[in-house]
């Protein structure tokens, strides 16, 4: 894929299953930062940059697919997504992202390549503009700065 200059104005952040438990869930792997902390930080950056940011978390694959499909009609021009466990299983969520044609960055808090072999396979990475894995909550901020073209 060729490098594209992104300057997004309407950004959607999607958090997959179990990420509502961040802060409490295996903190030695995922850190102590909560999902609210992450969303608050991203909202503050977006406000300062005067762009619209929406965040969505679900433990339900169908709801995640519906929210991605909605991006086709609500002028979303960039998606930051941590598909969580669905990274390694969900062709359906991948297909939804492909259908929207909206550029996206795939995020993982942990380095999925330094973990179990079943986490090394992602159904999303080849469609993504880029992948950030292993930088903890900071990965979301870096993805947002990329989307804002603040490099
Ligand atoms: C994760 C990594 C996945 O393998 C795991 O299933 C998750 C979180 C991460 O952010 O490191 O739920 O996507």
Automatic annotation (TrEMBL):
Gene3D superfamilies: Dehydroquinase, class II (3.40.50.9100). Its EC number is 4.2.1.10. One of its GO terms (biological process) is aromatic amino acid family biosynthetic process. The active site is at residues 30, 108. The record marks 25 as: Transition state stabilizer. InterPro entries: DHquinase_II, DHquinase_II_CS, DHquinase_II_sf. SUPFAM superfamilies: Type II 3-dehydroquinate dehydratase. Pfam families: DHquinase_II (PF01220). Coiled coil: none annotated. It catalyses: 3-dehydroquinate = 3-dehydroshikimate + H2O. Pathway: Metabolic intermediate biosynthesis; chorismate biosynthesis; chorismate from D-erythrose 4-phosphate and phosphoenolpyruvate: step 3/7. It comes from the Bacteria. GO terms for molecular function: 3-dehydroquinate dehydratase activity. Substrate binds at residues 82, 88, 95, 109-110, 119. Keywords: Amino-acid biosynthesis, Aromatic amino acid biosynthesis, Lyase. Belongs to the type-II 3-dehydroquinase family. Homododecamer. Catalyzes a trans-dehydration via an enolate intermediate. This is 3-dehydroquinate dehydratase.
